[in-house]
Amino acid sequence: MDALFNPYYVDIVVFLIIYILLGLGLNLITGYAGQVSLGHGAFFGIGAYASGILSVKAGLNPWLAILLAIVITFVISAVLGLPSLRVREDFLAITTLGLGLIIQSYFKNSELTGGAYGLDSIPGLSFFGIEMKNVGYLLFVLIMLLVGIYALRKMTRSRIGRAWMVIREDETVAASMGINTTYYKVLVFAIGGAYAGAAGALFAHKVSFLSADSFGFTVSATVLSMVVIGGLGSIRGTLFGVTLLYLLPELFRLFDLQMFDMKYLDMYKMMFYGLLMVLVMRYRPKGIFGQTGIKMKPRGKGGGGRA
Known about the structure:
11 helices, disordered C terminus, ABC_transp_permease, LivM-like, transmembrane, Branched-chain amino acid ABC transporter permease, transmembrane helix
């Protein structure tokens, strides 16, 4: 039992859950609405820095700081989602990549974020005066994950979710059906960003120190790989993809495999991700658990139905 609750293993699961939340937000944007984003790490950073700054420099209670960080990321993500109104596919990917690099540069150079020195002394969470460490924090992030999954299931099975999927398949057809594509595209960026903001806030209060390097393109590319391999437009695909790609490097480190030099673990990891991406794109273009189309519920005897 002591080995099961070893702080090292508990931390691995905590960070895994944080990455799953991050992946759920990206899958909502890319998998369900078809808006390719290469700057999701920026939303992750906005949530982390917002919560850290509010709790360190503004002196707010960490619980309130997390809530406000989610709201702030929601609003900023909606604003940053505006470029998606005029660009699509490859152009959208390049645009979001550029936005992500701009935001990371701001993190590195702004006095508000601590610049190159980063932001430290971020307080942890406490519940009725008891500091939440290890298992306590694990239970909290697990509850956040369950709430996030429940909310995502409700959204994607509602009229909003069907509208996103129609936009994903063909935006012109969606507009001809009377779907307000402008509203739904901005909304999906805002909600997906809020998921990333929640993940970032949880990350900030876990590690207590933030550096701009933690929210760069590598994070965005890694999470996108996890989502694509697991399956676009699938919650269980995100759970599978993130868990698989996050835990494999940890298994290498845990068993200290002799065939791998642990100094080059990051290089091996990215090589493996790339190879797996090539294989999945060749044989399962939608990912292992990805959706192949829109599932419409029949309405009445005549069938049919609108998004």
